Amino acid sequence: MKNYGEKEARIFIRIQKHRKESWKKLCFKKQISLSSLITNSVENRIFDDERRKILAFIEKQDNIFVKIETNINQVAKIVNAQKFMNVEALKGFNEKLKTITELKEQQNKVFTKIYYLIAKNC
User: Fold this and answer.
1) Can you tell me the distance from the alpha carbon of 64 to that of 57, in angstroms, rounded to the nearest whole number?
2) What is the pLDDT confidence band of residue 1, given thresholds at 50, 70 and 90?
3) pLDDT in tens, 99-121
4) Which residues contact 33 (CB under 8 A, 6 or more apart)?
5) Which one, of 50, 39, 32, lies nearest residue 116 by Cα?
6) 99 and 64 in contact (C-beta within 8 Å)?
7) How far apart are alpha carbons 68 and 92 in whole angstroms?
8) Axis-axis angle for helices 48-82, 87-121 (nearest 10)
9) Which long-range contacts (CB under 8 A, 24 or more apart) does 66-69 make?
10) DSSP string covering 20-67
11) Residues 80, 76: Cα–Cα separation, whole Å
12) I want to staple 45 with a disulfide (CB 3.0 to 4.6 A). Which of 16, 24, 38, 40 is the partner?
């Protein structure tokens, strides 16, 4: 059975030295290989560093949403038990709702970029 991760061929290209150095700096900044940069650029695919950012964002978002949901449930318990909500609790609740709104905006930007890249590859 063939291993798809195994590299079988080598391509040699000639470019200006300063361009190669510029590419290498970009790769270092993005924490990707030069081969990955070239391959993904030619094949019009998402770069590995962008994929890592997306996954990290989704994981962070999930963790924050769990905390916010827990806090909202706690606020609801207090309000139900006391039949009122004090000013401090209301401020905290509003801050959590603001965080949710900001995260949803970030999420929509990320998803828009993902959809664009997917559509571009079709």
Assistant:
1) 10
2) very low
3) 888 887 887 888 788 777 766 65
4) 27
5) 50
6) yes
7) 11
8) 150
9) 68/96, 68/99, 68/100
10) HHHHHHHHHHHT--HHHHHHHHHTT---HHHHHHHHHHHHHHHHHHHH
11) 6
12) 40
Question: Residue 6: what residue type?
Answer: E
The model's pTM is 0.48
> Which pLDDT does position 7 carry in this prediction?
74
pLDDT digits (tens, 9 = 90+) for 40-86: 788 777 777 777 887 787 778 778 778 877 877 887 787 788 877 77
3-state secondary structure of 112: helix
Locate 77 and state its tokens.
């318990």
Structure tokens at 88: 């401090």
d(CA 28, CA 43): 21
41 residue type, one letter: S
Contact (CB, 8 A) for 92 and 113 = no
Token pair recorded at residue 71: 């806090």
